[in-house]
Amino acid sequence: MPVSEELLEILACPMCKGDVEFREKAEFLVCERCDIRYFRERCDIERCRKCSGELKVSEGEVLVCRECSRWYPVIEDIPHMLPDNLREDLC
Ligand SMILES: [Zn+2]
Ligand SMILES: [Zn+2]
Q1: Residue 66: which residues within 8 A CB-CB, separation 6 or more?
Q2: Which of 48, 62, 70, 78 is the most buried (most CB within 10 A)?
Q3: 1 has a pLDDT exceeding 70
Q4: What are the pLDDT digits (tens) for 10-20?
């Protein structure tokens, strides 16, 4: 289920407070060991940055900030909007 319009209205980028845009089909590179999802469009990596383990391609949903272009994964309908200093998935 996509993120609702109402929720999108409320959500803002935690870093710049800009509006975010929902994308229903995004490719992620997933490290199952670390439970980290890297947004493939932004992360040109072959191995997990934390454990150097293998990554699996998987489709998912993402929110992208219209102002600063930061991205935030939506996992099981929950937007995960963490500031940079709490993220392990930045490339
Ligand atoms: Zn890993
Ligand atoms: Zn932003």
Answers
A1: 18, 19, 20, 21
A2: 62
A3: no
A4: 999 999 999 99
